Amino acid sequence: MSNRNYNIYFHTHTVSGIVISVVLFVIFFAGSFSFFRDEIINWERNESVSITKEIDLNYDTALKKLNKEYVLYGRNITISKHSNERRVNIYAEGTKDTLAPAKQKEGSFFYLDTKNYKTTTYEESYSLGEFLYRLHFLAQVPYPVGYYLSGFIALFFLFAIVTGVLLHWKKIVSNFYVFRPKEKLKTLWTDAHTALGMIGLPFQFVYAVTGAFFMIKLLIVAPAVMALYQGDQNKLYKELEYTDSEYKFENKKLATPFNINQLVSKAKSNWNDFEINRVYIQNYGDANMHVLVEGELVNSKKFTGIGKVVYRISDGKEIAKKNPETQNNYLDVVKNVLYRIHFGDYGGYALKIVSFILGIITCFVIISGVMIWLIARDKKNIPEKKRRFNKGVVHIYLAICLSMYPITASAFIAAKLFYPLSQSSLYSIYFIGWLMLAIFFIVKRNDAFTNKWCLILGSVLGFLIPVTNGIVSENWFWNSFIQNKNQIFFIDVFWIVLASITLYAVLSLKPKENK
Hints:
By secondary structure, the chain is an alpha+beta fold.
C-alpha cells in the first residue's frame, strides 16, 4: 500500500471514528441490552410467557369486548404480535361507514392483554425494555432527526470498519494474536483495539449495514419513488408486499355469523409447525368482510417460511393462500433475513448472550479507539493548549459513555420500585440522572476515577437489582427458577453475572505511577 493510500485510510478511519464515537457507544450499549427487550419487559411487569411468535388469544371474546368500547363495524383491524409478552398490538382503522360519528372515523392503536383483555395505550404500556430498545436508534430525539442521525452514524461506522480493515489488511492475522499488556499505554490500547475489533468485525459489519438500511432507507428509495412511481409510495409498498389487498366496503350488515377462532385454527392446520402472528380483519361486520391469517414456520424448520390464508366471511370460502414451504420468493427472504440478523431472534438465549457480549466488545473497541487518538496526540511537540483540549474532549467522551452503565442499572431498580413508571418519569430518571453523573465526572477530570467509579457504581447497583425484585415482588431468582418463570429468572441472574464481572474487572485494575 502506498503512503498516500495509507494516509487516506488512516485519516478517514480516525476522523469518522472520533466524530461518531459517543453516539455510536450509546447505540451499541443500549442495543446490547435491547437483545433482552422482551425479558426486561416481562421482568418489570412480573410476568413470564412462553417463548413463541404465536398469538395466544381468544379472538372472538376479545373482539366482542372491543366492539363495546370502540364500535368495530366498518373498520379494518390488525391484531399482531411482535415480541414475547402477554400483550398484543391492536390497530383499528377508522370506520368506512360515512354515517358513523366522527369519533368512530378516527383510528386507534393500543395493546390488549391476552389474559384479562385489558386495553392500554402506548404511553400506559411504556417500559424500560421499550425505552432501551428505542434509545439504540435515538428515537427519543424528535422524529425524524433521531432516526436519520442513527442511520448516518451507522453509515459512518461502516466507513470506519472498511478503512480499519484496509489499514490492517497485511497484518490482519498476525496482529490478531498480539496483545502486550505490559508495554506502554498506547501499545496496550492499540492491541486491544485491533484484536477485539477483529473478533467483532462480522457482528459490527452486519449491524452497520442493517442499521443504516432500517434508518435511512426512506432517503435511499426516495429517488426511485419519484422516478419510477411518480411520487406514489403506496405503489412501491404494494410491490414490496408491505400492504395487503383491499376489499370494497359495501355498507351492508353481514347476515351470517362468523367465528374468527375457527378460521385461525383452520389456517394453522394447513401446515405443521406454523405459528400465527398476525390476523387482519377487513370491513368488520360488513357483507364484504374478509379475514387474513398470517404466520411463519418455526425457525428450526425453515428460516424464512411466511404463509397466509385469506377467507371471505359471507360464504366461508378460502380465496387466497400462500404456502410458507414452497411459495416464499426472493423478496420474502431479503426482508426477513435483514430483520432476523439485526434482531437476533432466531437462536434463543445463546445467540442473544453472544450478541450482547459482541455488542459490549464493540463498546470497548470504541473507547480504545478514543484512547489511542488521545495518546497519539499527547506528545511534547504538540502545544500544551491543544493537549489540554484533547484531554478535555476525552474526559467528556468517557464521562458520557461510562456513566451509562450505572444509570442503566439504577433505571432497573427504579422501574421495579415505582412500577408502573410513566414514560415521562422514566425519561426524567434516566436522562437527568445520566446528565448529573456525566457532569460530575467531567468536572472531576480524571479518566481513571471515572472508569473506576462507573464500574463500582454499576456493579453495586447491578447486585441490588435482583434484591429489589425479590423484596418488591417476592420473586427471588431461585423461586423464579423453580416456578419456571424463565424470563424473570434470566434478568436477575444476568445482572448478578454482569455485576460480578465488572466488579472483578475494577478490583483487578492497578493504578500506574506517573513517571
